[in-house]
Give the backbone structure.
Amino acid sequence: MEHRTDTYFTVKDSAQTQFVEQRSRFISFIWHVTQADEVKERIAALQKEYYDARHICYAYMLGPDRTEWRANDNGEPSGTAGKPILGQINSAGLSDVLIAVVRYFGGVKLGTSGLTEAYRLGAHQVIEKAEVITAYVEREVTVLFTYNMMNVVMKAAKDLDVQMGAQDWGSFTNDKFSGSFDCKMTFRARLSVADELERKLDAIGETQAVREIIIDK
């Protein structure tokens, strides 16, 4: 899938806030998550720790394209909890994030508008406390080349500030070219930078360097 951008916003670590509204206590949590299974684990842990709470409502957004999401009211009137939590995630433009709000009922009913505002505020406060960071969509570029082209390949990566990952030495073959190669290196870089690295390697190819590009989308 092509991405319109290779950057998006998420949170670096977890954070927690709380406030009291009409004697109901709202405890908010935020985490960086990348998979729905992580969400399930976090919510299960909250349910175990706050077993005596009336409600544990949450919402999450996953992926650079922000296409995987869910909002859960956990017994509150429909649309009064998960939806306002998700709304704050969207307002902040976050992804790969889970926000859960634990409510201890204080005996006073807040009404639908009061609940909506309380869960909105809980999500807003915990986002404000968390450290929002820029995350990057990345690709892997694996390069096969002969040893005499080492400096040229490394310079192409260094010019783009691309970090080297796995490397291997031996005898490698490529069906596209005759002969074998001495070196195999994998670089991981931002989507746009990986594209530029590929272009630089194409230019090297024009000067008789041989390479194989493997793109991991």
Q: What stands out?
A: The first strand starts at residue 7 and ends at 11. The chain has five helices and ten strands. The domain at 7-135 is CATH 3.30.230.30 (Ribosomal Protein S5; domain 2). The mean pLDDT is 85.
